[in-house]
Amino acid sequence: MGATMLRSCARLIRRGIALPGQPQSPRPLPCCYTTPRFYSPEVIRDYAMPNATWSKNLQDLYNRYMEGSQSGAWERIPSYNATVHHIKGVPPSRTRENRLFTRNLDQDGVGFEYSMFYNKAERRMVCLFQPGPYLEGPPGFTHGGCIATIIDSTTGAGAVYLCGSVMTANLTINYKNPIPLGHVVIIDSKVERVEGRKVYTSCQIRSHDDAVLHTEASALFIKLGP
Ligand SMILES: CCCCCCCC/C=C\CCCCCCCC(=O)SCCNC(=O)CCNC(=O)[C@H](O)C(C)(C)COP(=O)(O)OP(=O)(O)OC[C@H]1O[C@@H](n2cnc3c(N)ncnc32)[C@H](O)[C@@H]1OP(=O)(O)O
User: Fold this and answer.
1) Which compartments does it reside in (predicted)?
2) What is the gyration radius of the CA atoms in the chain, in angstroms?
């Protein structure tokens, strides 16, 4: 990607990314979205809300973090199926057929089912994740690439919420215990430190009951723009 393009992308994202504290609820689409190929013209769906495919474990965890959000410690992060919906100012004609990788399936429950919560004081981004049957790697278990994806997304979201637009430069993962499909896990990530443009994050994936440590990871993000 050329440096000029990166910088202009960074400017767009920096100007318009939906940050904590800004209105996040489903909003009416502008008229340029009224002939979409993929999504409803009425509202942009927020996928980080419970649906019928959520297991009791996922629902219980979600409720617990929602309670935490009432005290102001945690904030639920909305999730749309296209990056353009998170960024204001990108011409929809150029991007409306693109989908966010983790939200690219039409059927609920078969792929990445998740909701993220941000704790600003602790610089933590937590993702409650239920991997669906289409994410299979070894028989019955979650594909390592999908695990890398949800780690990148969670640590990346933490970096974005603290520092604005970023790109992943390095992702290091230790897979310790396989994640069975359908089992709910918690991806618990933190921005450890920021040095100039470099944002260092760490991450653990544990089972929903904290009994199993599935994965440990660290990721380096580079801030874009000036
Ligand atoms: C953009 C995000 C938008 C999100 C919007 C959605 C909203 C939803 C909300 C929230 C969810 C967000 C979730 C996002 C998660 C997904 C993110 C991805 O999948 S990103 C795709 C994969 N990554 C790439 O394709 C990068 C490819 N690489 C590059 O483009 C460049 O190499 C880049 C930008 C990383 C750095 O290039 P330079 O030219 O700007 O900067 P230089 O000078 O090379 O590096 C700056 C410093 O960083 C160090 N550095 C760079 N790369 C390093 C590395 N791999 N390891 C260690 N240090 C590195 C360098 O040594 C330098 O350090 P010294 O300032 O000299 O001390």
Assistant:
1) Cell projection, Ruffle membrane; Cytoplasm; Mitochondrion inner membrane; Mitochondrion intermembrane space
2) 17
pLDDT at 83: 81
**Could you report the per-residue pLDDT of 27-66, keeping only the tens digit for each?**
333 322 222 334 444 468 999 999 999 999 999 999 999 9
Nearest CA to ligand 1 atom 27: 169
Q: Is the CB of 160 under 6 A from ligand 1?
A: yes
pTM: predicted TM-score of the whole model, two decimal places? 0.85
- Domain ranges for the chain: 3-223
0.95 surpassed by complex ipTM: no
For ligand 1, is residue 102 a contact (CB within 6 Å)? no
Compute the Cα dihedral for 189, 59, 107, 207 and give only its sign: positive
Q: Under CATH, to which class is 3-223 assigned? A: alpha beta
Tell me the three state secondary structure of residue 102.
helix
* Ligand 1 center–CA 167 separation, angstroms: 4
What are the angstrom distances between the C-alpha of 219 and each of 26, 80, 95? 31, 23, 27
Asked about 60 being catalytic, the answer comes back as no
Q: Let me know the angle formed at the C-alpha of 154 by 83 and 126, rounded to the nearest 5 degrees.
A: 125
Distance 149 CA to ligand 1 centre (A): 15
Burial of residue 72, with CB atoms counted within 10 A of its CB: 0-12 exposed, 13-18 middle, 19 or more buried: exposed
